[in-house]
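Teaching note: in complex prediction, the entire set of molecules is handled at once rather than each chain in isolation. The prompt given to students was simply: 'Predict the structure of this complex.' The entities are:
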Amino acid sequence: METSSVRSLSQLSFFLPKPNRNKSYPSWPCKKPRTTQPTRLYCQKMYVPGFGEASPEKKAAKNMHDFFTYIAVRIVTAQLESYSPEAYEDLMEFLSRHSLNDGDKFCAALMRESPRHKGLAMRILEVRSSYCKNDFEWDNLKRLSVTIVEESNIRLMRDYVVETSPATESEK
Amino acid sequence: METSSVRSLSQLSFFLPKPNRNKSYPSWPCKKPRTTQPTRLYCQKMYVPGFGEASPEKKAAKNMHDFFTYIAVRIVTAQLESYSPEAYEDLMEFLSRHSLNDGDKFCAALMRESPRHKGLAMRILEVRSSYCKNDFEWDNLKRLSVTIVEESNIRLMRDYVVETSPATESEK
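The expected output is the structure of the full assembly:
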């Protein structure tokens, strides 16, 4: 079964509102262009367009929400397999018919399937709340994310240099 | 343009290894089943199967990585639109031909497109690193995620009660 619960994180178009182009700036602006525009509040952070009244954090949190539902389903499925094979079969059968892309939609459908399924849904809600608050290592997420970005940047630049430097090949 | 850079977060199958079913447990186990199995290390956390040697945090971090690339592209695009319309057109044209699903693949292709595009790619790498480390509000992500899970749970249960309680309707 395939799921894609966080697909929407970047399903945003690149349409941007037209800014004032009358001013001339260097081709690489400093990171705080807002400070040059008196109508905008001073902010140390880079301007991220396209999120309206939401924020990148809100967008990411919504996708983490679907991720936590997915994790909760995995946890409950594994528990059921050991302790209640009948309930495990019920849940697996339901999973084969319903997508986990939208965690809340999945839970709402599970609650309405039958009284037995409703028990499973309540368990999933309980587990995702507990997992999000107690088990998920948020500090670790930040640390791993920063590491992955740094390592990826180095790898991309190194690969490019190796690929575009014939001298490096001949020196071997 | 549509992108789905974090699609892979939950593209995992629900295949689970078969555990020992000889023991009998209550249908709802306590949250630390591992402590009853002497071959496993004691752990306060719920067991999340299916991540092999990785972890949910690692999986989430990989998807945050693609999200940060997406954010960086948005930031750079907005900056270019104000300061360098030619570079903006270059980037938008490239975006129309390449998917942002895999951020690193996108950057690698952008670097190799032309020397001008390489400059854009380097800028995107720089911005995603800076954004991830300095601008993104990690504490806010955790706070929002917990809030969304709690509110969603309450809403799902309330909707179910309202829907399945005809008495509530007649009392109005």
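Point out the following to students. Confidence is low (pLDDT under 50) at residues 1-37 of chain B. The radius of gyration of chain B is 24 Å.
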